[in-house]
Amino acid sequence: MSAARRPAWRAWARVYVTGACIIGTGVLLFKYTVPTDEELISRFSPEIRADYERNKKLRQQEQQELMKIVKETYKSNDPIWKAGPIKSPFEKDGRGVDPHLVDKTSFFKNEEDNKRKAEIEKANAELEETETLLKSSKKSWWKCNCKGYRITVYIATKS
C-alpha cells in the first residue's frame, strides 16, 4: 500500500542513484585494482623482462605488418571472412603455416646489421673529428698561443 502513495519519480530516482552507485563502484575498483603495463613489467622476473624488452621491436613490426594487411583487406571487395594473405589454421592450405607475420631471424639479423652500421658511422665521425683537430692544431703540445701572447712552458729538470 505504501508503494501506491509514493510518487513515481521517487522510485525512478532510487533506480538511477542505485545504478550510479554500482557503476561508480565498478569504475573505482577497476581503476585501483588493475595494474598498469609498467607495474606488470616490473613484476616480471629478470629473464622474462629481458625477453620482453628484446622482442618489443619485433612485436611492433608485426603490428605494423598487420595494419598494412588490414588496410589492404579493407580496400578489397572480398568477404569479411577472407583474411587476405594471413592463412587461417582452420583452412586446409593454412595448416602448418607459421602464424607470425615477421620472420624473427631476419628481423634480428637486420637489427644487428643496423646497430653495426650505426657503430661504424659513429667511429668514422669520431675519426674525422680527430683528424680535423690534428690538422688544425699543428702546434706543439707544450706551446700555447693565447690572445696573441706566446706562452712557452718549460719543464724544470733536476741536474
Overall radius of gyration: 35 Å
Structurally, how many domains make up the residues? 2
Strand order of the largest sheet: 1-2
Separation of the first and last Cα atoms: 123 Å
What is the percent of helical residues? 55-70%
Total beta-strand segments = 2
Structural class: mainly alpha
Largest sheet: 2 strands, antiparallel
- As residue ranges, the low-confidence spans are none
Strand content: 5-15%
Mean pLDDT: 80
Shape: elongated
Total helical elements: 6
Give, in order, the helices and strands. HHHHHHEE
Short summary:
The chain crosses the membrane at residues 12-34. With 159 residues, the protein is mostly helical. It has two domains: 1-34; 45-128, no CATH class.
Structure description:
There is one protein chain. With 159 residues, this protein is mainly α. It has two domains: 1-34; 45-128, no CATH class. 62% of the residues lie in helices and 5% in strands. A two-stranded antiparallel ribbon has the order 1-2. The protein is elongated. The chain starts with a helix and ends in a 7-residue tail after the last strand. Its main location: mitochondrion. One of its GO terms (biological process) is mitochondrial respiratory chain complex III assembly.
